[in-house]
Amino acid sequence: MENNIKFRFPEGFWWGSASSATQMEGAANGDGKGRNIWDHWYETEPNRFFDRIGPNDTSNFYELYKEDIRLMKKLGHNSFRFSISWSRLIPGGQGEINVKAVDFYNRVINELLLNEIEPFLNLYHFDMPLELQEKGGWESREVVEAYVNYAKTCFDLFGDRVKKWFTHNEPIVPVENQYLYGHHYPALCDFQKCVQAGFHSILASAMAIKEYHEKNMDGKIGTILNLTPSYPRSTHPADVKASIIADAIFNRSFLDPSVKGTFPHELVDIIKEEGFMPIMADGDLEVIKENTVDLLGINYYQPRRIKAKENLFNPHAPFMPERYFDYHDMPGKRVNPYRGWEIYEKGIYDLLINVKEEYGNIECFIAENGMGVENEKRFINEEGIIEDDYRIHFYQDHLKWVYKAIEDGVNVKGYHVWTFVDNWSWLNAYKNRYGLVSVDIHQQFKRTIKKSGYWFKDLTKNNGF
Ligand code: BGP
Question: What does the CA dihedral 109, 156, 412, 399 come to, rounded to 10 degrees?
Answer without folding.
Answer: 30
